[in-house]
Design brief:
Elements lengths: L3 H14 L53 E5 L2 H4 L12 H8 L23 H14 L4 E5 L2 H4 L7 E2 L2 E2 L3 H16 L3 E7 L5 H7 L6 H17 L5 E6 L1 H9 L57 H28 L2 E7 L2 E4 L7 H28 L4 H7 L8 H7 L7 E4 L3 E4 L20 H5 L23 E5 L2 E3 L2 H13 L8 E5 L8 H6 L4 H6 L28 H19 L5 E7 L18 E2 L11 E2 L1 H13 L4
Parallel strand pairs: 1-2, 1-14, 2-5, 5-6, 6-7, 7-9, 8-10, 9-13, 13-14
Antiparallel strand pairs: 3-4, 11-12, 15-16
Helix pairs in contact: 1-15, 4-6, 4-19, 8-10, 9-10, 15-18, 18-19
The chain binds beta-D-galactopyranose.
GO biological process, one term: carbohydrate metabolic process
Protein name: Putative cellulase
InterPro entries: GH (IPR017853), GH_1_N_CS (IPR033132), Glyco_hydro_1 (IPR001360)
Amino acid sequence: MKTLSVFTTLLAVTAAKKCIVKDTSAPAADDVAVPSDEEIVEVTGSLEDVEDSSVESAEETPKKKLPADFKWGAATAAYQVEGAWNEDGRGESVWDHFTHLYPKNVESGDRTNPDSTNGNVACDSYHKFDEDVKMMKIMKANHYRFSISWSRLFPDGEAKKVNGKWNVNEKGTQYYNMVIDTLLENEITPLATLYHWDLPYALHEKYGGWLDYRSQDDFAKYAEYCFETFGDRVKGWITINEPWVNCVSGYRLGPGKAPYRCTGEAPRKLQNDTTGLDLEGGCSYEIGPSQYYKGAEVLPANRAPQRLEDVWCSHNILIAHAKAVNVYRKKFQKKQKGLIGITIDGEAQIPWQDANTTPEELENNKKYANLAAEFRIGWYSDPPMVGDYPASVKQRMGKDMPVFTPEEKKLLKGSSSDFLGWNTYTAHWAEQVKNEDGTYVQPPTDDEASFETSKQDMWDDNCRGRGEGWSCIPPTLGSQAGSSWNTKYGPTIRVGLNWFADRYKGLIKNGIIITENGCAQPNYKVSRANDLVTKEYFESIGQPEYADTYDESIIEDESNIEGSIINDEYRIDWYAQYLENLRLAYAEDGVDVRGYMAWSLVDNFEWENGYETRFGMTYIDFYNDDERTRVPKKSLEFLGQWYLENVEQA
Ligand code: GAL
């Protein structure tokens, strides 16, 4: 049995032991390293293992502060906060379309309220941005990460310049001009994400969205408009948010994330929500363009085979990112002097160790932790850094792995060398799984390798690497927060930062930015009560330690928001743990980490969890308060104080 005391001991040691030489002479923010047009970064050296060495414990380490130019702020995404879904000429996104079609796919505590299962109104930031800025001030933000809604600018997704004029929805431009100008007036630097999952629905209807190679150029054109229009003021661009989640949750796992497709599973018909979404049924190939139909194995050229939709979505989205970066570098970067990169997600993989683990097994687990990380994270971070998928991923996927052309590799390589954005929340154990007779399960041979065998992973004793969606609770570390996948375990951020820093040593010019990190409040209302991940559930699978913060008797409702909703001690402890580990990664390990964006500034539309899962540092009563009044939580003040105490003040 794995216990929390083992977690604590192991990770305190694991995290503190990393001692890696990094480039600590990184330039200051105003002196950013912008690449030249032709620059192609050569990859040198091997992907080394982290070497252990003994250092003092965290308590004894003299406190070194983060530098004065540290990017400090909070993050949100357009569909989650803006609302105004059909105002001022905005076009439909896949999220509008699918939440309207299948409202029951989204959790809601008040189904009598038509806005409770979608982002129609959300935080109404479209009309209340000034209120959001007030919240940023409380946490002393010097940056704000927001995303631009593609379909607010180009309702049908296709950006075109004809006779020198863009076919843009001017009202959309006005809105983002207002956002950017308001931030700058308040001395907050905008960090803009171009794509946070809200693909224009028209492109899904037209060619299957990210399943089709045409999405690459449509994205690059839309990006070009944004650079041209906002780039005089926006100096930090994130192309894509979390390609893994977008593609795996949207195209593989069925209900959950738009467009609710479910490659690799037997297609089952979703009912239109007039009768209720058949959540048992799950997913559908009926959703989407007509050429994607049940049983179709022969698809038009350049289309992903059905069983590999998430893989091809990922492939297209990575190339789309690289094409957008290329446009920026060729046409805008020299003049505008901004930075551009991608944001990827993924849990740090921690080598499993307990009292019975032999040194040999530990070594093996370290190797498998790295392989698991390559599969879960490197799949997405290697292409924009070194220009190709990791060799281990290609080996495991065999002939099912799409191949980048030489031109694509060239475009990809170094396309996130300005900075790398990483969203991190939780941690996974990793080990090589053993057969019943105690022998190791071996990786598939080259001949056997395929999408199917790649799923028979040999690490992560429960979830087995990539995981099987919601049917599997990964063996995460730490205490259970308010989302099934969201566990509090501070050292994970340090382990992950070190993994990136080692792997891409010398390749990231302006450091790593934590573009999201945050905590869903546990014991909050319906999602807790309805979620599979109850205390009983963990007990039933023999892992009660994962439910250690659970107390169903204190499931919150909103009749007394002063309780742990506003007084969010659990979240404060989350931030304290993660931020201290981030500081240690910088101060002790020399990792070049340049920023931290907390998720999230405000409670917002948490995708399939609707308004029933709260990640915000600001409370909003979504069901009863048409004004969407912002009420700061204690964590917002805590972050303001943390900033003053732990970041050098200029
Ligand atoms: C991230 C995502 C955010 C937010 C957060 C919390 O994966 O980028 O939009 O939802 O998770 O679930």
